[in-house]
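Board notes (copied after class):
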Amino acid sequence: MAGTDHTRATAHGGPAVILVEPQLGENIGAAARAMLNVGLTDLRLVRPRDGWPSEVARAAASGADAVVDGARLFPDVAAAIGDIRRLYACTARRRDMAKPVVTAEAAAAEMRALSPGGGACALMFGPERAGLGNDDVALADALVAVPLNPAFASLNLAQAVLLLGYAWLRAGEGEPAGEADRDPPATKAELIGLFEHLEGELDAAGFFANRERRPVTVRKIRNMFQRAGLREFEVRILRGVVAALADRRRT
């Protein structure tokens, strides 16, 4: 189905697509084409069997040259995911690992929530013949499962990339422009300021009665706030709450 219009702006960015040990240049090119269909441009290759760069892949990409030319080569999965904050393993095989299993739509929503631009996230696909190995799946935060015919759930690499990428694209429809910039996550300096403010007031109130346990309790309190994923304005509110309670105790 033809639909190329070079007069229109090209969407780009989104989560990275990591292909682990892809076997054929044709499949890499077809995956690159699928990526550009849905505005994904960060292609990462881990040990492609037939080497890289590949003119066969370029031909199969059918014009998605920007994705092919920008593809990066990595020696292993650990190197490919070094800057990733959330990694999804795309596999149809049942696993014995205790990992969340989400739909493509749920994965897309989670990625949008973490990073509206998708740059902190990645979708990982395994070799065409056997899929991802257990060691690579172990590095993922969640598995993506697509409800297909249970007796025949086989997708080729490009189909799988397109399906997951399309879910990402749809999840961003109607997303307010610049929303994340107006509500950024708190910096580590802001969080540490909150921690020290709270801990100082707890010291003054005698909360840490057992001084030997203080370091452990402090770490637990800090971990609670870290898990909350506080935004800048939330830190300001919490510091105001701490200050108000401390002033009331002193009066």
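Comment from the instructor: The domain at 16-179 is CATH 3.40.1280.10 (Alpha/beta knot). The chain has two domains: 16-179, 183-250.
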